[in-house]
Task: structure prediction
Amino acid sequence: MKDNTVPLKLVSILANGEFHSGEQLGEQLGMSRAAINKHIQTLKEWGIDVFTVTGKGYSLSSPMQLLDEEDINAQLDDGRLAVIPVIDSTNQYLLDRMDTLQSGDACVAEYQQAGRGRRGRQWVSPFGVNLYLSMYWRLEQGPAAAMGLSLVIGIVLAEALQELGAADVRVKWPNDIYLEDRKLAGILVELTGKTGDAAQIVIGAGINLGMRAPAAEAINQGWVNLQEAGVIVDRNALSARIVNKLRSALAQFEQDGLTPFVGRWARLDNFIDRPVKLLIGDREIFGIARGIDQQGGLILEQDGVRKSWVGGEISLRPQN
Result:
């Protein structure tokens, strides 16, 4: 990966949202104005809005709060979080280091060059406006015990966001976070381990905090960010809160399974008692969503009969 030292220093200077002349920046960073302009192009490639005004210099469209490793770890009950500003993927970073990690180790990034969503989709990851977070967990009971894990993570994310002022955040089965019937955050759980062995799990979350439309041309579904809903959160405080809550919830999940979380899911369920379409492969199943069962399966009611489903994706069914 190329050396990003200069572009990152440039971001830290510009983060206050004020104008800085090319001459000033050149003096601070010890390089020519032409070299500064080249590094400004890197910032634009990262999805940062940089304004260039003749006679005034460079400015960001708005001030940017950068992730601060020291600040986040000071808010954690047990440290162990790394901030890697520019990364291919936070999940991949932990997957590549699993042999050296302990349960609860986490990382966050400002920008992902190859962010991943579910089913091999790209996760659009512009610099500094969202949150990209991953955590490692070792589940001694093995892969089968991970059933319902993504629901627990969804609950943790939704509750953390609600506690920081986003009261209307909800969960969508099996692993998305919704706001105003649009996707606010996604969860990617990657698991390795054979039956009889411990499961090694990397949990990834991407939360849209302030991403604007130009960065999102690759997104093929309705999405929303927190700022649109009038909620501004401190990214460092949010990172710490999620990590603390995840560590606690995963330890409880390991001990007690999904049972303690079913009621919490019900309070947050965006689709409860609404008509939905469940898509499993090429198959479409229509019904009324009635929450989840003790194994994390989706309960669908059709003609008064309730049945649990464990695979697929749901969407709202338009009313006739």
Observations:
- The CA atoms of residues 30 and 52 lie 20 Å apart.
